[in-house]
Amino acid sequence: MNRKLLPWLGLVVRLGLAAVWLYAGATKVGDLAASGRAVHAYQVLPYDVSVVVGAALPFVELALGVLLLLGLATRLVAGVSAALLVVFIAGIISAWSRGLAIDCGCFGSGGALPPGQTPSYLPEILRDLGFLALAGFLLIWPRTAVSVDGALTGEPVEDEDE
Q1: What does the alpha-carbon distance between residue 84 and residue 34 come to, in Å, rounded to a whole number?
Q2: pLDDT digits over 146-159, tens only?
């Protein structure tokens, strides 16, 4: 790939992943109890722990989104994003393999589905794998155009080793 285009592609990837985290956090932050219920629907954590995780998760997602939007600590944020996405994917696979009928809660309140409604686990897993690919790109090429990281280092982005 052309080294001069890589920072601009990285910018698009960074902003795309930022949008995902900002949207995910924003859809949950207004109802933290529902977010806790969505986490508990996976039946992996005790109820009290699910409530805490569910209440904290939207703020983590929003923080990741803001940091990516700014391009600050991009590689670290990409690593945390990748780890979180792996947990999400594992959770969806776990729910699917155990026959649970839940909404993942990825972009909203989530929780148990009404009787007769079927979950859409495969599209959710594929979507999260796509987001994981974005995070992986930023792990490998964290220097992107128009970023606080670049402004702090003062180095031209295109001079970075690949």
Answers
A1: 19
A2: 999 999 988 665 54
